[in-house]
Amino acid sequence: MKLIKGILLVVLLAFTKVTVVAQQSTEIAPDSTRNKWIPDYAYMQFAGGQGLLSLGAGYKLGKRERGYLDLGYGFVPSGVRGRAKNIVNLKYSTWLVHPIQIKPNMSLELLGLGLASSWYFGPEHTSLKEGYPEGYYWFSHATDLRFSVGARYNYDFCEKHLIKRVTLYGDLGRTILYSVNQFKNPEMLFNHFVNASVGVLLHFD
Question: What residue ranges define each of the domains in the chain, with the CATH number in brackets?
Fold first, then answer.
């Protein structure tokens, strides 16, 4: 629970960024007052192995800010898969193709690669579920490691706006450990290791 509270604190700090920027004078250059520990953006994602709904924040990396590092919390309600799930997510993604400029304030990025890991909390993830044959899993299913490909659409606002950019994205991912297990176990099903997600990023810088 302490870890989950820490994740929620990071998300809160991301939205606190909006308040901090609002209180700054417009005569002060943004870079002169920016705290590097405050996240550059917040995100909300639907599905994709990170929970039915996940929230988090992250930092842009690299000189061109083509790398994105996310940390967040995901949740699956009990009505979806029997028992509620709490998930901590960590993801790194990088965008390889130069943005296609649609309009001065609109762009499209067609190729992004991501690597994500999720940690599931609860006793049901520490032992093999009933009904599965011995050897079905050779790894702990409390941890999930995935890679993904994606695309995204960016809409830029004026610099004076608190939210500088809104990004809509979609990913198609595959669970690495399940993919390896498929070669060892023919009983693995296709939908056990493929997932899709959609989400939105709110950029504060």
Answer: 2-131+141-203 (2.40.160)
